[in-house]
Amino acid sequence: MKYELILFDLDGTLVDSASGVIKSIDYTIDFLSLPQLSEEEKKALVGLPIFNSFKERYKMDDCSAEHATKIFRDIYRKDFLYDASLYKNVAPTLGRLRDCRYKLAIASYKKDDYCSLLLKYLQVDKMFDFIQGSNSNNKLTKTDIIRHCIKNFNIALDKILMVGDTAHDALGAENVGIDFVGVSYGFGNKNELYNYKNIAIIDDIEKIFDVLS
């Protein structure tokens, strides 16, 4: 096998979590009496680090952004975490990859515990050898998350593949020195993915087997 370990981003790659995330953004905006965002502006925030999103969108200082992030995460965990579904063909693709003896892991901006809870709810948690999410201090970049994840495996970089939907995923893979496959159906801008090194951009997760063959 060319690859031994496949890392997956979660939101926008395996899971369509847009509805729950947007509802949590709406709640946070209303709670803090922030200026309203258009639907397109809110959709653009899905799958990105929520701390950075609030900080940059509303020109907040770190303290204010941390407060907004806490409000978002609390309501998201309480009411909207499970307002999500797997994208088409995700479950059978993961099962087939396991059957083919690939190691599978998650490398996500979503908090560790949220990743685990959501994957268990969607009944695919057993597919993964390791789940690496973000932490509570909001400081990890996607590069950091990928690096932390692969430290748990004794596998050479040229045997590791990252799959994601955003420029953050592509840049993180490039910075770490692993190959990247982009998915065009997620929350990211497909055109941005072409600005980074990639071995393929696919419109259905099951097409990863075309890359692996």
Automatic annotation (TrEMBL):
<dbReference type="Pfam" id="PF13419">
    <property type="entry name" value="HAD_2"/>
</dbReference>
<dbReference type="InterPro" id="IPR036412">
    <property type="entry name" value="HAD-like_sf"/>
</dbReference>
<dbReference type="InterPro" id="IPR023214">
    <property type="entry name" value="HAD_sf"/>
</dbReference>
<protein>
    <submittedName>
        <fullName>HAD family hydrolase</fullName>
    </submittedName>
</protein>
<dbReference type="InterPro" id="IPR023198">
    <property type="entry name" value="PGP-like_dom2"/>
</dbReference>
<dbReference type="GO" id="GO:0004713">
    <property type="term" value="F:protein tyrosine kinase activity"/>
</dbReference>
<dbReference type="InterPro" id="IPR041492">
    <property type="entry name" value="HAD_2"/>
</dbReference>
<dbReference type="InterPro" id="IPR050155">
    <property type="entry name" value="HAD-like_hydrolase_sf"/>
</dbReference>
<dbReference type="InterPro" id="IPR006439">
    <property type="entry name" value="HAD-SF_hydro_IA"/>
</dbReference>
<dbReference type="GO" id="GO:0005829">
    <property type="term" value="C:cytosol"/>
</dbReference>
<keyword id="KW-0378">Hydrolase</keyword>
<dbReference type="GO" id="GO:0016787">
    <property type="term" value="F:hydrolase activity"/>
</dbReference>
